[in-house]
Write a structure and sequence with these properties.
Blueprint lengths: L1 H34 L5 H7 L2 E5 L5 E7 L2 H6 L11 E11 L2 E2 L8 E6 L5 E8 L2 H4 L7 E2 L4 E8 L2 H4 L9 E2 L1
Amino acid sequence: MNSIIHTARQRKVVTIIVVGLLVCVVAYGYRCVGRKICGATILDQTVRSEASIVAPNGVKLSLEIADTPESREQGLSDRNGIHDNDGMLFVFDEPGKYAFWMKDMYFPIDMVWVNEDGVVVHVENNVSPDTYFLSKPPRVFVNGPQASYVLELKAGEAEKDGMYLGTHLIFE
């Protein structure tokens, strides 16, 4: 009889521990999915969504989407680099003027502002991290005409792929 009671208690304790862990995992997962940024690289890569665009020269670019305040603030900061034909697409709720700077960046990038029709409205080529660290105050880059999207690409990618004022990008 004692062994049956002991086994039942063990099962109850194990069940309570498993349910507690499951609640923690679900709550953390919901936070990550809702914010699309978790703080853990593996989770962030899993949770963040991706898109692709076709550049004017026909090259298909794979883009990580930053469409929440937290993911837009993080951007490509604290990374060591970016691959050819990869980048980040910042998606905004409304067309407007959007300012970017190179805080916590370790490599140069191209910034391409795109309107809601997919037309390039502003480009900053080969922006160096030094524009943040060596400028007093840090240099801020902002579009003239209103944009709905901003692409951050490896330095030299925008020119190589034919992204100039007035060119059209195809979102897939």
